Amino acid sequence: MGDNDLYQSLLKHIGEFLDTDVSHLKPESHLATAVAGLDSLKVFELMLYLEDVYGITVDESAIESIDTLRDLEAYVRSRLPTDPAAV
Fold this sequence. Notes:
Elements: H1 3-18, H2 31-34, H3 40-54, H4 60-63, H5 69-79
């Protein structure tokens, strides 16, 4: 999955999960402040949702280090299978 493909996919899924328009988000957007209602519990629920969407496992301790959309993209990318046939 290309850089922009994953970013666009994340935006789409975040918007679906929150049932809101998130097209204004940029890679440097801080998740906690750029999206209304995205408190720490909602971020945790979002990560569980993304686990299902991307077939990854999220380390709960890593959630605290995810501050921006760029951080989230890098984290999801690091958890994706490297074998293209596995996707």
